[in-house]
Write a structure and sequence with these properties.
mainly alpha, 10 helices, 73% helix, disordered C terminus
Length: 220
């Protein structure tokens, strides 16, 4: 129980290290949350501060998701030695992933105003199950290919997260209980990411959401 709480606490703090805010203050002496949409994430960094800022944001947010899940795995494996330990490690992993995403969205270091969590969620899914990760990336790229809208692609990827988790777990012959537990964790992660895109959803419904040009990395 103590290790479980430690995993949540550490993963949340890791998530609170928002790359776009930190990089923005170091490189440009400005807070990304005062620019563009006000969101502390990759898309706003790309739109307002250019490719370098966006790439550093991507790398930082992705890395912290991987590190958070790794911490969860190590803490779970510390006292495990049988089949049940595999399930425990998975539960620790999903818990750490969710805590990291929440930390990214509501960072205690930055007055609980962070990003929308899609990159961090991707990173955690990569370490937990690479097959699910590939499905999420494929969904994102497919939607982006036709729409050129990052927010719409992110929403579809978030919605597909619990669906992909359910089917991949089922194919792997996990028990129904295991599959349900894993799916509920990813449902919670996907739901909070979609919730943070509520303003984007409103603009999408009004057909006011801006597109991104792949060739020039500029707004259309």
């Amino acid at each position: 129980m103590i290790q479980f709480l430690i995993a949540i606490f550490i993963s949340y703090l890791i998530g609170c290290i928002n790359s776009s805010i930190v990089v923005g203050k170091l490189l440009k002496a400005q807070d990304i949350r005062t620019l563009g949409s006000g969101n502390a994430g990759f898309t706003n960094a790309l739109r307002t501060s250019g490719k370098k800022m966006a790439l550093l944001t991507f790398a930082g947010d992705f890395t912290k998701g991987v590190v958070a899940v790794w911490v969860g795995i190590e803490l779970a494996a510390f006292s495990c030695s049988d089949y049940k330990s595999f399930i425990l490690i998975k539960i620790f992993s999903y818990t750490a992933a969710l805590a990291c995403v929440i930390g990214h969205i509501y960072p205690c270091f930055f007055k609980f105003k962070g990003g929308k969590g899609i990159l961090t969620a991707w990173a955690t899914s990569l370490l937990i199950d690479w097959k699910v990760f590939l499905i999420l990336i494929s969904v994102f790229l497919l939607v982006f290919l036709f729409s050129k809208i990052i927010s719409l692609s992110s929403i579809f990827a978030a919605v597909s997260y619990p669906i992909a988790t359910f089917f991949v777990s089922h194919i792997r012959s996990c028990s129904f209980k295991e599959t349900l537990i894993y799916t509920l964790f990813t449902l919670a992660t996907g739901a909070i990411v979609v919730y943070k895109h509520k303003s984007n959803i409103q603009r999408l419904l009004k057909r006011e959401e801006k597109k991104i040009s792949v060739s020039r990395s500029e707004l259309k």
